[in-house]
What does this fold into?
Amino acid sequence: MEKLVEILKKYNPDVDYYTNEHIIDEEALDSFDIISLVADIDREFDVEITAKDIIPENFNSAKKIYELIERLS
It folds into this structure.
Protein backbone atom coordinates (compact mmCIF):
# COMPACT_ATOMS: atom_id res chain seq x y z
CA MET A 1 0.00 0.00 0.00
CA GLU A 2 2.91 2.36 0.73
CA LYS A 3 4.20 2.09 -2.84
CA LEU A 4 0.71 2.79 -4.20
CA VAL A 5 0.39 5.93 -2.07
CA GLU A 6 3.81 7.09 -3.29
CA ILE A 7 2.58 6.71 -6.87
CA LEU A 8 -0.69 8.52 -6.14
CA LYS A 9 1.14 11.43 -4.54
CA LYS A 10 2.87 12.07 -7.87
CA TYR A 11 -0.50 13.09 -9.27
CA ASN A 12 -1.90 15.09 -6.36
CA PRO A 13 0.35 15.42 -3.30
CA ASP A 14 -2.26 17.40 -1.34
CA VAL A 15 -4.63 14.45 -0.90
CA ASP A 16 -4.55 12.21 2.18
CA TYR A 17 -4.82 8.91 0.37
CA TYR A 18 -4.97 6.96 3.61
CA THR A 19 -8.30 8.49 4.63
CA ASN A 20 -9.90 9.96 1.51
CA GLU A 21 -12.49 7.59 0.06
CA HIS A 22 -13.74 9.92 -2.68
CA ILE A 23 -10.70 10.79 -4.79
CA ILE A 24 -12.64 10.37 -8.04
CA ASP A 25 -15.89 11.90 -6.80
CA GLU A 26 -13.98 14.93 -5.49
CA GLU A 27 -11.94 15.14 -8.72
CA ALA A 28 -8.62 14.85 -6.91
CA LEU A 29 -7.47 12.92 -9.99
CA ASP A 30 -8.59 13.73 -13.51
CA SER A 31 -9.00 11.35 -16.44
CA PHE A 32 -5.44 11.94 -17.67
CA ASP A 33 -4.13 11.16 -14.17
CA ILE A 34 -6.12 7.91 -14.11
CA ILE A 35 -4.69 6.75 -17.45
CA SER A 36 -1.14 7.52 -16.27
CA LEU A 37 -1.85 5.94 -12.89
CA VAL A 38 -3.04 2.74 -14.56
CA ALA A 39 0.19 2.56 -16.54
CA ASP A 40 2.25 3.14 -13.38
CA ILE A 41 0.31 0.47 -11.48
CA ASP A 42 0.64 -2.02 -14.34
CA ARG A 43 4.39 -1.46 -14.41
CA GLU A 44 5.01 -1.31 -10.65
CA PHE A 45 2.76 -4.17 -9.55
CA ASP A 46 2.99 -6.33 -12.71
CA VAL A 47 -0.78 -6.45 -13.23
CA GLU A 48 -2.93 -5.64 -16.25
CA ILE A 49 -5.77 -3.24 -15.57
CA THR A 50 -8.24 -3.40 -18.44
CA ALA A 51 -10.82 -0.85 -19.55
CA LYS A 52 -13.57 -2.77 -17.74
CA ASP A 53 -11.65 -2.31 -14.46
CA ILE A 54 -11.44 1.47 -14.83
CA ILE A 55 -14.61 2.42 -13.00
CA PRO A 56 -15.03 4.89 -10.12
CA GLU A 57 -15.74 2.09 -7.64
CA ASN A 58 -12.23 0.71 -8.21
CA PHE A 59 -10.45 4.08 -8.06
CA ASN A 60 -12.29 6.15 -5.43
CA SER A 61 -9.74 5.41 -2.70
CA ALA A 62 -6.24 4.02 -2.33
CA LYS A 63 -7.76 1.08 -0.47
CA LYS A 64 -10.05 0.27 -3.42
CA ILE A 65 -7.18 0.61 -5.88
CA TYR A 66 -5.06 -1.69 -3.74
CA GLU A 67 -7.91 -4.23 -3.56
CA LEU A 68 -8.07 -4.14 -7.37
CA ILE A 69 -4.32 -4.75 -7.57
CA GLU A 70 -4.64 -7.72 -5.20
CA ARG A 71 -7.53 -9.19 -7.24
CA LEU A 72 -5.52 -8.90 -10.44
CA SER A 73 -2.31 -10.34 -8.95
The radius of gyration is 11 Å.
